[in-house]
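Field notebook, page 464. I keep forgetting to write these up properly, so this time I am using the form the group agreed on. The chain and the ligand, phosphoenolpyruvate, are recorded exactly as supplied. Prediction of the bound pose follows.
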Amino acid sequence: MTNKWQPTDWRKKSIEQVPEYPDKKALEKVEKTIKNLPPLVFAGESRKLQKYLADASEGKCFVLQGGDCAESFVDFHPNYIRDTLRVLLQMSVILTFGASMPVIKVSRVAGQFAKPRSEPTEERNGKELESYRGDIINGLDFTEESRTPDPLRMLRAYNQSASTLNLLRALSQGGYADLNQVHRWNLGFVEKNPQGEKYKKIADQISESLSFMEACGVKSETVPEIREMKLFTSHESLLLLYEEALTRIDSTTGKWYDCSAHMLWVGDRTRNIDGAHINFLSGLANPIGLKVGPTLNSDNLLKLIDKLNPKNEKGRLTLIVRLGYDKISKLLPLLLKRIKDEGRNLNWFCDPMHANTIKSSSNYKTRPFKNILKEVELFFDIHKSENTIASGVHFEMTGQEVTECTGGAQEISDEKLGDRYRTHCDPRLNASQALEMAFLTAEALKRIREEKKGTQKNNIAANN
Ligand code: PEP
Ligand code: CO
């Protein structure tokens, strides 16, 4: 990062996935307004997250990143925010058990509005319009008016993000996130679930641990760590006009922070090393994520790493790997070996959603639960074989009982997808599928931990 970098530098670079706004005057006015609005998060909080991420890269904690594919204006309701937070909390209790270490929660919320699209336009019955690019840019309705980029949407997204964050902060610190309470919700899930028996063992062990802690005097009334949770926010840094307007100099360090979220990532479609998005992220002091898809080879990955984290700082850069259940075994070992050999400090997260999207026979975009799980399991197995650290998972999920991903214990079939298919963009795990995924991920993490311990014991015995 150089001191000379400015948040406007990206404007001189080529840019992908960002539309032309027809009304330039209105756009400038909105940008000016947002530049004067309060930051949504503080630089000190982003620094704290970087510290946790540095710990995660050393295997001292684990990260759960998750939330909606795309937030929307119509789904803005306190119950939705609460329900997504609840699932995130429930998953994190289960994962804490599997990983046997603290789980840091990073939500995809309060800013996750802009979407990259595979096609710039969409055609229906012979009519062609601009693709929907997320509620911060244009509307989902298939009309000329709705699909025209409207700068005022940025203001609405900012306001929605501010009130979402306000509720999240209140819920996470006001008693709602109490560990005991959250685990009680999990017991409800286990009882109701058709395959609940499978999860009962983990749930019982968590209950035992909580009772033991309470017997030792570790209670929520006295220990804030049990009563409160630390929650961070993140989203894809796609609409740079919005991100630039919320980028401010931190008075403590003199560095630039994008105060729209604690962590920002660059998507798989906009990671061109000479492009606008990489230029923008390279100058920020926030922790940064980079999506790693199957077309990124280890040479180009290394160049991107050095551009985004030239000082090789711990916790600064997270690679969010989304290779697909059928490709990960071939591609990930090559990347892990190369990065390890080159001594780069970074985190490896698994996003098992984005390379496992298919079209169902009923013509819905969907993701089979078993393929998502397979990619997660392979991710951990490969890290174990390469002796590298898998430090987080990244899911698209919702607190609602939607029918968007097939399979899971509820056995959602292709024919059932139409029942409650509500996403504005990609198919999400519903609340039950998200919890089931957490139980199965915890099992995988625990198995690997025990195998590792077994190997260490054998090595000690062999050396004695
Ligand atoms: C996303 O995370 O919603 C997304 C579009 O991801 P990717 O860039 O990995 O395709
Ligand atoms: Co998505």
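OBSERVATIONS:
- Residues 191 and 197 are 8 Å apart (CA to CA).
- The pocket of phosphoenolpyruvate (ligand 1) is lined by residues 69, 116, 236, 267-269, 291, 322, 354, 426 (CB under 6 Å).
FOLLOW-UP: compare against the apo run.
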